[in-house]
């Protein structure tokens, strides 16, 4: 079995870092056993992305949030596994929709087998998550159902795009909140709830984690333009090549300045390979980048506001350090 993920965020307390590392080892063990099947192929397909690695970021947030209650409570690790299974299931489905050939440095499931296998494997992971949920109580089941609804709604809204008359920028932020923020919010909520933390603490963790999730994705948008290497896990300019309009691009497209005419022309659809460098150069120099970064900072400030009301323990300092990191990684 592969080693559990390493806690690599800037934690300020060694004991907390060790607690999280120990918890992630338990998560990894249960995660792998939860997808075992009598059918060896189902097990192989289900473990495909688990074996490919990943930071288990959402599972780690569950464990970190549990520090505000009884971190050793019996439901915490299963709750973290539910979150991770849900996240992995969405990756199987995303790769089919995006026709992605690679995931986490390995062939995607749809590339290794086919789209049908990838879709069904994602469904299987959702089912396994539901089985674990059944032992965690009706409130947790309801929260998971609401989260799943938001995940699907976000994907649908992203696919169809903004409706006529709808602000594309507001639409984009709402999509990020549903597609990315919702599951990260539920990570914090599960950790607080399953550890028995006070209701006000659970609410603060939920809001802060959603804001962190939105900020994280906005940081990825900026890195795809600003980075000179694959810092965000994909080749810089990938969104341009795929015609994906992220926040900086939406700001440019909303501009009516004659100076932006060439960049608007390039961003009107997928950018041809021979034009990618020009588009990157123009976008990097455009005020839209600073404007998008300011939006990221505003979300992280929201997270900090909620976190500041939490009990002053090492986990709060860790969350605040994470907020700093989200901003720093964006450049």
TrEMBL record:
<keyword id="KW-0460">Magnesium</keyword>
<comment type="similarity">
    <text>Belongs to the FPP/GGPP synthase family.</text>
</comment>
<protein>
    <submittedName>
        <fullName>Polyprenyl synthetase family protein</fullName>
        <ecNumber>2.5.1.-</ecNumber>
    </submittedName>
</protein>
<dbReference type="InterPro" id="IPR000092">
    <property type="entry name" value="Polyprenyl_synt"/>
</dbReference>
<keyword id="KW-0479">Metal-binding</keyword>
<keyword id="KW-0808">Transferase</keyword>
<dbReference type="GO" id="GO:0016740">
    <property type="term" value="F:transferase activity"/>
</dbReference>
<dbReference type="Pfam" id="PF00348">
    <property type="entry name" value="polyprenyl_synt"/>
</dbReference>
<dbReference type="InterPro" id="IPR008949">
    <property type="entry name" value="Isoprenoid_synthase_dom_sf"/>
</dbReference>
């Amino acid at each position: 079995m592969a080693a559990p993920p390493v806690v690599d965020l800037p934690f300020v307390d060694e004991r907390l870092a060790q607690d999280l590392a120990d918890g992630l080892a338990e998560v990894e063990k249960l995660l792998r056993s939860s997808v075992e099947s009598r059918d060896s192929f189902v097990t192989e397909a289900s473990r495909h992305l688990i074996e490919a690695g990943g930071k288990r970021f959402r599972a780690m947030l569950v464990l970190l949030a549990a520090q505000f209650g009884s971190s050793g409570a019996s439901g915490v690790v299963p709750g973290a596994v539910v979150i991770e299974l849900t996240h992995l299931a969405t990756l199987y489905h995303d790769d089919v929709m995006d026709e992605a050939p690679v995931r986490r440095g390995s062939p995607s499931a749809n590339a290794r087998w086919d789209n049908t296998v990838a879709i069904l494997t994602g469904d299987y992971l959702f089912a396994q998550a539901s089985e674990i949920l059944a032992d965690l109580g009706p409130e947790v089941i309801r929260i998971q159902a609401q989260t799943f609804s938001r995940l699907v709604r976000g994907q649908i809204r992203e696919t169809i795009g903004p409706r006529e008359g709808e602000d594309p920028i507001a639409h984009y932020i709402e999509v990020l909140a549903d597609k990315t923020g919702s599951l990260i919010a539920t990570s914090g909520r599960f950790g607080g709830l399953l550890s028995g933390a006070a209701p006000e603490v659970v609410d603060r963790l939920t809001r802060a984690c959603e804001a962190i999730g939105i900020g994280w994705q906005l940081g990825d948008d900026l890195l795809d333009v600003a980075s000179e290497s694959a810092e965000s896990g994909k080749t810089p300019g990938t969104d341009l090549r795929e015609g994906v309009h992220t926040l900086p691009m939406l700001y440019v497209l909303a501009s009516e300045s004659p100076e932006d005419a060439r960049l608007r022309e390039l961003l009107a659809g997928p950018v041809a390979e021979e034009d990618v460098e020009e588009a990157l150069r123009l976008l990097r120099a455009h005020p839209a980048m600073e404007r998008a970064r300011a939006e990221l900072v505003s979300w992280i400030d929201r997270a900090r506001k909620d976190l500041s009301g939490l009990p002053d323990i090492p986990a709060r300092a860790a969350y605040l350090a994470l907020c700093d990191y989200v901003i720093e990684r964006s450049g």
